[in-house]
Design goal:
There is one protein chain. The chain is mostly helical. The chain contains 1 helix and no strands. The chain is rod-shaped and about 65 Å long. 0% of the residues are buried.
């Protein structure tokens, strides 16, 4: 049995808990997903602009 002072931080002592913690997690995930999406789109636009991606079938077929 562990001593009471060795327990993890109680929910009462947490900086943010309950619905607020869930909302902050949702905001974090939405910003993360938005950043990944914008990064992928901008990479594709950069590749298309540089001419590294062919939009038509290759001429050797």
């Amino acid at each position: 049995m562990m001593a009471p002072h060795l327990h993890p931080v109680d929910a009462k002592e947490a900086l943010v808990s309950g619905p607020e913690q869930n909302a902050l997690g949702n905001i974090l995930v939405s910003f993360l997903m938005g950043g990944i999406f914008v990064g992928v789109i901008s990479d594709w636009l950069w590749l298309i602009g540089k001419g590294l991606v062919r939009m038509t079938s290759p001429s050797y077929i």
